[in-house]
Design goal:
Layout (H helix, E strand, L loop, with lengths): L4 H20 L11 E5 L2 E5 L4 E5 L5 E2 L8 H9 L6 H8 L3 H18 L3 H38 L3 E4 L1 H46 L33
Antiparallel strand pairs: 1-2, 1-5, 2-3, 3-4
Helix pairs in contact: 1-4, 1-6, 4-5, 5-6
């Protein structure tokens, strides 16, 4: 069976939820998933939503505990031997909490779309729109925060900093949520139209089943059908009854 707009919109919400979930469980939860990687000598530092991980070329990885906000300037200064201060960056790391919020909204929208029909899709579309706005804000913060760090490290140290997987996952999730808003909303319109068409076809079928009427309105009982032609009466038969 072909995938209609209802199935497509629900699938897009599910895909966006998975993308945001993977980005949310970045370092220190999963050390190899990060927004920014800094390579300094034989050591790589990966920054995620709730902290960061130090990944040496040999030996076990060292990750921080999961918490909201961390001092990224102090960390980068330690691993690159270049101290610098930017007070606004620490506040931006606290705003990374928007990622799990966007993931939660997207998941709720997916559940509502999966279990709804017609009007329920409007509510799912509204939730998808909220998830899109939060994801868009998260993406803007990601690029603002980690672009500042990347440019400063590349311009002032011998280490190299580059965007990693998680930041592109958030970008993809934001685009997917944008399209899902319209597709899920369109599902409400198509669902109502399909129900109206099915109701119309069912009404015609019931009339035929009872033997009372044809689809064109002709009566099939004891009376003469509407579309049955009546014989022509000549002038000499005008006063005679027709049997």
């Amino acid at each position: 069976m072909a995938i209609g707009p209802i199935h497509c919109g629900t699938f897009l919400l599910f895909a966006a939820t998975i993308l945001l979930l993977v980005a949310t469980i970045s370092a220190p939860v999963v050390d190899k998933i990060a927004f920014l990687d800094i390579n300094s000598g034989a050591e790589t530092t990966s920054f995620g939503v709730f902290g960061y991980c130090l990944r040496p070329s040999s030996g076990a990885d060292q990750c921080t505990g999961s918490h909201v906000g961390y001092d990224i300037t102090t960390v980068t200064g330690t691993i690159t031997s270049h101290s610098w201060v930017n007070k606004s960056i620490h506040g931006l790391t606290k705003a990374l909490i928007l990622h799990p919020i966007a993931c939660g909204l997207s998941f709720i929208a997916f559940i509502v779309a999966l279990l709804s029909s017609q009007i329920g899709f409007l509510f799912a579309s509204f939730l998808a729109f909220l998830a899109f706005l939060v994801s868009l804000a998260s993406m803007a913060i990601d690029f603002a925060l980690f672009t500042i760090v990347r440019n400063h490290i590349n311009d002032n140290t011998t280490a190299t900093a580059s965007f990693s997987t998680a930041i592109w996952l958030v970008l993809a999730a934001t685009v997917v949520l944008f399209f899902s808003v319209f597709i899920v909303c369109f599902s409400c319109v198509t669902g109502r139209r399909h129900e109206r068409d099915n109701h119309s076809r069912g009404g015609i079928g019931n009339n035929n089943a009872t033997g009372g009427y044809y689809g064109n309105g002709g009566y099939t009982g004891d009376q003469v059908m509407m579309d049955e032609p009546v014989g022509k009466r000549h002038f000499w038969n005008r006063n005679k009854a027709v049997y």
